[in-house]
Write a structure and sequence with these properties.
single chain, alpha/beta, 4 helices, 4 strands
């Protein structure tokens, strides 16, 4: 099984990758999607170029992927467009599952403050 983590150079993307590695996921099965691949070189996993504003890069990044963990970009006002581009590419590639449980576990295990991340309990902010 191959897992693509988008937004891999951001804080959340890095935490998810670290959590998967800590849980024993084979590094060869994790793919880091990043707009700037040089920034992701230190993650210890395969890195692919993925820019939400470039649908072709998203389509290429999801080729051969079984599971996608979608991490939003941080550009103000761009999330809806980014998510649409990503959803179109994923739908076209037949990737149909997202491992939210793994994301929750990774966030819980590796949140820098040691507390539960607000994404795990959005009502308890």
């Amino acid at each position: 099984m191959t897992i693509l983590v988008t937004g891999a150079t951001g804080n959340l993307g890095r935490l998810i990758i670290a959590g998967l590695l800590e849980r024993g996921t084979d590094p060869q099965s994790i793919v880091a999607g990043a707009r700037n691949t040089e920034k992701a070189a230190d993650l210890g996993v395969r890195v692919v170029h993925l820019d939400y504003s470039d649908p072709a890069s998203v389509a290429t990044a999801v080729e051969g992927i079984d599971t996608v963990v979608l991490v939003s970009g941080s550009e103000v006002g761009q999330r809806v467009a980014q998510h649409r581009a990503h959803a179109r590419a994923v739908a076209a590639s037949h990737v149909v599952q997202q491992r939210l449980r793994q994301v929750r576990e990774a966030l819980h295990a590796f949140h820098p403050s040691g507390r539960r991340h607000h994404l795990l309990n959005p009502c308890k902010r």
